[in-house]
Structures are given as structure tokens and as C-alpha cells.
Amino acid sequence: MKENFMEQQSKMAHPGEDALARAFSSFQEASESLSRKYAGLERRISELSRELRDRDRALASQGQFLETILKSLPTGVLVLTPGGQVLWSNPQVEKWLSPDDGELLNLLRKWGIWPISERIDPLAVSCKGRSLLIEISRVADDEERSSGYVLIVNDVTRLREMEEEVARDRRLRDMGEMVAMIAHDLRNPLGSIELFSSLLARDAGIRGGQALEGIRSSVTSMDRLIGNLLFHTRLPKISPAPFPVKDLLDRLSLDCSRIGVMRERAGGPAVSFSVQSSSSFVVEGDEELLYHAVFNLVTNAFQACFDAGGGSITLSAERSKSAGAIFSVRDNGPGIPRELKEKIFDPFFTTRTKGTGLGLPIVLKIILAHNGLLKIDSNENGSCFIIQLPGPGESLERTSGDIWSGQILEEEFK
Hints:
Elements lengths: L1 H12 L1 H58 L3 E5 L5 E4 L1 H6 L4 H10 L12 E5 L2 E11 L5 E10 L1 H47 L2 H28 L7 E4 H21 L5 E7 L4 E4 L1 H21 L3 E9 L5 E7 L27 H11 L3 E7 L2 E8 L25
Parallel strand pairs: 7-9
Antiparallel strand pairs: 1-2, 1-5, 3-4, 4-5, 6-8, 9-10, 10-12, 11-12
């Protein structure tokens, strides 16, 4: 009885202790709950940070992959600010254009692209010997304000060459049909003239015989011209067979040397002619047609040197790595004038009074019939015509620098 009374007195004497204990217990529970939530928050933050890093790495990887793709494109890509500064460019556009800000803007102004107008149409331009097609896209932000421009640049040089080749072949085909008809109609009366002049020569005196011989010579010359016309109007049919290059060079050496000797005896300027060959080898082709092609090139070289008052010509031949052949005819004449470079392969174009303008077009046809290439290096120090014939089973790839539709390279002589 006494103990119960004492307990009651004790409880009544310390009423705040229970409240403090309860408060402390509640605080402890809240603290533990807060610690658990904080730990959970830390885990969540750690998870989010890890996810963010993973996404950053994925975005960086995607960005690198996209940049790799853009750098690997055969198309040029250029990104400009609204003010014309270069933000980014891939190697292809750097090869075709100059990505330096000032120089690029000067080019864009020259082409009428900069400042960029509201209407943006594709533009064809020429730069560093290439035909380029430039397409421009405006980059806009969320409020449709311009934040820059993307220029897509495509090299259409080969396409332009193909278009020119098709147009040229169409013109030549139409011209060829007309020339073939005229040549056929001319050859019949020429044959009659030659026949009757031969009959008259039997009964004519000395003076009459000389006149008739002049007629026959003129007929022969006209017949040769008609033959060249007919040859040019159709792709020559070649009869390929293996032959020693040395045999071809020996013939050319003998016949071409006579050109210089005869001209010098007639009071013309001195022109030296030499033949070089690294080794004796066999090549497959039509020997007669190839002789005709190389002889024509050497004849042109002689004429260029004669016009320059003298000079030297070198004919060389070497075996290519693919077992084909490379012939070159080099002279130190005046070179080909810039304004004529696009015309020298046009039929009937000539700068000489007695020229027919069929020499180089026929050479080109012969080389193409052999699936070969004809290249020209020319400047004020002279010209070098290079014939490249393929080896067995080889297909020579034509590039923008190759002569196949009336174009010419400009390179310094080494």
C-alpha cells in the first residue's frame, strides 16, 4: 500500500520527464526516418547521376558517330553562323573550298551567294578546276529565327563531263551522218576523174602529162581527206594482236626523223627528234592504228617547234605496272594557248591554213577504241601528249583530269 502510494507520488512529482521521453523518442524516430529517406535520396541521386553519365556517354558516342559519318561523306558539309563565321566543316569541303572565314566569304560574295537572300536556290559554281553544286539550308531556332546556315557541296565535275560527252557525241553523230553522205557522193566522181586522167596521160605530151599528174595528185589528196572524214565518223575497228613495241618505235623513228630533215633541207628551222625506251617489251593492240596515232602526235609536235623557230621532240615508251604501255610525245614548243584548250579535240578545228582539224579527233578515237587514255600536259614551256594503253584484263578508270571528251590538263613540266 505504501509502495503504490510512493509510485503515485513519484509520477506526480516528475510529470515533464514522460513528455521529454516521448519527445525524444519521437525525435529519434523522425531522425531515423529522415536518415532512411536521405539514404534513399542519395541512392536515387547516385542512380540519376549514373543514368545521366550513361546518357552523356551515349550522346557523345552518337555525336562522334555522326561526325565520323559527316567526315566520311563524299559530299561537302559546311556550317556557318548568321554572320558568316565557319562553325564546322568536313574534310571534303575543305578540299574543294577554303574554310578560312574571310576567304570563304569572298568566294561566296563572288558567286553571289552572300549575303544569303530569303530565297535559297542551288547554285552551280567552278572552283579549283571542279564543277560544284552548292545547296543552302537555313537553320532556325524554336522561334523561327535564323541561327545559321548549312551548305551542302557536291562535286558534279564528272556529271558535267558526261553531259558534255553526250551532247558532243550527239553533235558528232549528226555531223558524221552528213559527212558520210557527202564523202560517199564525192568519192564516186573523184574515182572517175582519176581514171580518165590516167587514160589521158597516155596520149598527152610532157606538159599535158605534168598537168594531168597535178590533177591526179589533187584527187589523191582529196581522197585522203575524205578517208579521214569517213574514219572520223565511225569508231575504228581494231585488230588487236601482240607486237614488239621496239618495232613500232623503229618505224616511227625512221619516218618521223625524215620530217625534220626534209624541212631543214627546205630552209626550215632545225628540230631534233629522239626516241627513248627503257626496255623492249610486247604490247597488245592494233599496230597500224597506234602507229597512225603516235605519228600524228609527232607531226603536230614538229609543227609546233617549226612555228617556234626550232626545238626538240622526244618520243618515249615504257611498260606500265599492269603490263600495258605508256607512250609520250614531248616538245619544247610554245604550248597550247589557253583560249584554244577547249577546242583542240573538236572536229575540223584548226589554226593552220592547210590543216583539216581531224588529226587529234582521230587520235582520240583510236585511243578510245583501245580502251586507253589520252592525257595532255601543256604550258608555255611546251606540251606532252601521253597515251596510256591498258594491260591484259585491265580497265583504266577515267577521272576529271583525263582526256576523253576534249579536256586538257595544265601541269608544270618536271
